[in-house]
User: Which sequence fits this backbone?
């Protein structure tokens, strides 16, 4: 079969349109006119998200002996955010334009468009009239309990990390850990971003995946480098192209005052190179601040009596940024025998559906019963989908668009010799295997190393 590659380049618009068409992501509150930059995940989006979270947990928790899991509350004692510095310093500088009434991040004017003349950035057009920058706190406030006063003010967490620091002592004592060890957590975080946008790239509620790795202070630089390598390796393991990933170390002027080193793992999104994940060497800042504000000593006491405040290395990312990178990397268009197809070339471990089971003729009882039997067997272990709706070519294209790596087709020959056709999403190669061997074949296929046909 002839494959002709043509403009397979993903744009944010194309990816968002496919996500909507195929029930990955819907604009939220759509029937009420939407809510800017809020999204709901549909069936395939949920399956994709669950796979990504599971693979993150596999690499950070299951395959290690030095990291434990945690799931802390979203609303914490507000003192946590005083100690962490978020109440005093978690601000973005904003400017308003008195002409077009739009509001912009003063430090990101070059990424924004003037409300009157979109080809210019705010401040560059003659009618622009920008105010001086003002500070705007990004935390969402709420109240706890029936009385709304300043004493009941609380915050939706803007990061999951603080929930980890305040549990340091619990884990140290009860899980009986000694540095170096880590605590990993996945959960929703909330930021009242002023300029959200680019689909899921910058949203106001997102699922963060953070790990705080506590180390003896002299080892912090070595562990910082180690975690940058580990996290870069994770993206390569799940099929992102090497040429689309880079590590960018922050200069001293860009780093938080407490940070002893920060690197962004950047991905070349359709909007350009941007932060996918941050890896920071936070020193002893967080444990020291929480010790000061809570008066609970957060330190490690070794069996020989030596005591110290561990330093912390933090890899932090959001599920949403990973999903946009994986969708953009997987998105492809090609012409196959004069017909166009759109395909999501996901890594098989990440794909929402691992295999489709397709009876060639939906009305043929023999084929249906064989196909149902295979489907019911495979679904005990795998995410598989049964589809008998429409012409076979259309069914293949539907599976290509949701990124299903393999399809098993049950046809007349199956009834004669009990074999099925396996179709490979990427190469479109077909082979026949016996029905009884499908499960083992699938498990082998999942173990094989996968590389995207889109190149390095
Ligand atoms: P940015 O500079 O892009 O605002 P940040 O440096 O403030 O990000 P961190 O506070 O380091 O981000 O958050 C850690 C990770 O959380 C980021 O690397 C990114 O993956 C993710 N993240 C942060 N803000 C958002 C958001 N509004 N939407 C989606 N993901 C986010």
Assistant:
């Amino acid at each position: 079969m002839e494959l002709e590659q043509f403009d397979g380049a993903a744009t944010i618009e194309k990816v968002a349109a496919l996500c909507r068409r195929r029930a990955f992501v819907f604009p939220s509150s759509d029937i009420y006119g939407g809510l800017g930059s809020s999204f709901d995940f549909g069936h395939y989006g949920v399956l994709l998200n669950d796979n990504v979270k599971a693979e993150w947990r596999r690499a950070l928790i299951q395959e290690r002996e030095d990291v434990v899991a945690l799931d802390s509350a979203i609303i914490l004692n507000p003192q946590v955010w005083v100690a962490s510095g978020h109440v005093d310093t978690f601000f973005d500088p904003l400017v308003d334009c008195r002409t077009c009434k739009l509001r912009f991040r003063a430090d990101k004017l070059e990424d924004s468009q003037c409300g009157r003349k979109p080809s210019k950035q705010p401040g560059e057009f003659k009618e622009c009239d920008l105010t001086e920058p003002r500070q705007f706190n990004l935390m969402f406030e709420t109240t706890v309990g029936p009385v709304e006063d300043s004493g009941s003010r609380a915050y939706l967490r803007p990061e999951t990390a603080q929930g980890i620091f305040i549990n340091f002592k619990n884990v140290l004592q009860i899980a009986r850990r000694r540095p170096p060890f880590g605590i990993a957590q996945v959960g929703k975080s909330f930021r009242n971003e002023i300029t959200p946008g680019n689909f899921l790239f910058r949203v106001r509620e997102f699922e963060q995946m953070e790990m705080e790795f506590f180390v003896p202070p002299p080892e912090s630089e070595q562990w910082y480098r180690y975690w940058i390598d580990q996290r870069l390796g994770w993206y390569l393991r799940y099929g992102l192209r090497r040429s689309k990933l880079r590590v960018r170390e922050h200069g001293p002027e860009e780093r938080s005052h407490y940070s002893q080193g920060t690197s962004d793992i950047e991905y070349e999104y359709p909007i350009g190179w941007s932060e996918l994940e941050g890896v920071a060497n936070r020193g002893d800042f967080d444990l020291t601040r929480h010790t000061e504000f809570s008066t609970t000593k957060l330190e490690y006491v070794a069996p020989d009596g030596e005591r110290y405040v561990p330093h912390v290395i933090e890899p932090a990312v959001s599920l949403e940024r990973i999903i946009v990178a994986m969708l953009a990397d997987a998105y492809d268009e090609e012409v196959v025998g004069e017909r166009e197809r759109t395909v999501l070339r996901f890594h098989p471990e990440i794909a929402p559906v691992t295999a489709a089971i397709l009876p060639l003729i939906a009305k043929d009882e023999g084929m249906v019963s064989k196909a149902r039997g295979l489907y019911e067997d495979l679904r005990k272990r795998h995410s598989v989908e049964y589809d008998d709706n429409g012409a076979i070519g259309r069914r293949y294209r539907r599976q290509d668009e949701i990124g299903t790596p393999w399809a098993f087709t049950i046809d007349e020959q199956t009834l004669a010799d009990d074999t099925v056709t396996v179709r490979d999403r990427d190469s479109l190669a077909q082979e026949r295997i016996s029905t009884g061997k499908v499960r083992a074949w699938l498990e082998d296929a999942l173990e094989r190393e996968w590389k995207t046909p889109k190149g390095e």
